[in-house]
Design goal:
Blueprint (H helix, E strand, L loop, with lengths): L3 E5 L11 H10 L3 E8 L5 E3 L20 H4 L20 H8 L5 E6 L9 H11 L6 E5 L2 H10 L4 E6 L6 H7 L4 E5 L5 H9 L3 E5 L4 H10 L3 E4 L2 H16 L1
Parallel strand pairs: 1-2, 1-9, 2-4, 4-5, 5-6, 6-7, 7-8, 8-9
Antiparallel strand pairs: 2-3
Helix pairs in contact: 4-5, 8-9
Length: 248
């Protein structure tokens, strides 16, 4: 099975992260899937944004949770990256799901609940995925185990994954206890032994954030289930080279 290539926040090395231009570039590059981050606005609208505050990637200040979606739409989420992307807007999850319709993309939605516990975010996201018939090819991931447990209680068939950047004793069994089907681990912690043990327990391993060709090749050699990269087109080219070497 081919290692899945997720565009991390879209093609985020070439367009402002978590915005439509980044997603469009990722799709055009041939990425298998798109990873994006979900938070809730003051009026309970799930939006695609990584930080809990808007300061780093917009011309605004303050916390996402203190803005309504309408207020967020007035912020410029592109000029920080380059003048070419000035006036790019923050997207809602619903807008994103509409855009992905008929695009044959795998989605990875990271629930950003490890710092702020957004009330009912799991149910709100789940309902939108059902509305747009996207459950079957969506992974829900989070650093917060409570979010994964909540999603598992809502619907045990949803594919969830535990995100971690730290070594953890008995990580595979811990992931299983959360009802998760995957481990999304920081690249420096990924190794062949973990992948082999996880496969034996019917758990998959994906790794982030993989931007160097040498790292990509290592992931492909280990049989890693998926990688998250800011450079999807390079990951695709590298995967093609890897497959050619196997055939030869």
């Amino acid at each position: 099975m081919k290692t899945i290539i997720y565009a991390h926040r879209g093609a985020s090395k070439h367009a402002p992260e978590n915005t439509l231009p980044a997603f469009e570039l990722a799709y055009e590059s041939g990425a298998d899937g798109i990873e994006t981050d979900v938070q809730l606005t003051k009026d309970g609208i799930p939006i695609l944004f990584h930080d809990e505050t808007v300061r780093r990637t917009t011309n605004g200040t303050g916390f996402i949770q203190d803005y309504t979606f309408e207020q967020l739409q007035k912020l410029d989420a592109g000029a920080w990256f380059s003048k070419h992307y000035a006036n790019t807007r923050i997207m809602s999850l619903e807008q994103f799901l509409l855009w992905t319709t008929n695009k044959n993309l795998i989605l990875n939605l990271e629930l950003k609940t490890n710092i702020i516990s957004y009330k009912h975010i799991e149910q709100i996201v789940y309902d939108l995925l059902v509305k747009y018939d996207q459950l079957g090819h969506t992974v829900i991931s989070s650093f917060n185990p409570d979010s994964l447990l909540n999603m598992h209680q809502i619907d045990a068939t949803v594919t969830t994954a535990f995100l971690t950047s730290k070594k953890k004793v008995d990580l595979i069994n811990y992931t299983k206890r959360l009802g998760a089907k995957g481990i999304h681990i920081k690249n420096r912690l990924m190794n062949q032994s973990l992948i082999n043990k996880a496969k034996q327990e019917d758990i998959y391993v994906a790794t982030y954030t993989v931007n160097r060709v040498s790292q990509m090749m290592r992931c492909y050699h280990t049989g890693c289930h998926a990688i998250f990269t800011d450079l999807p087109y390079i990951a695709i080219e590298t995967r093609e080279l890897f497959e050619q070497d196997i055939i030869q």
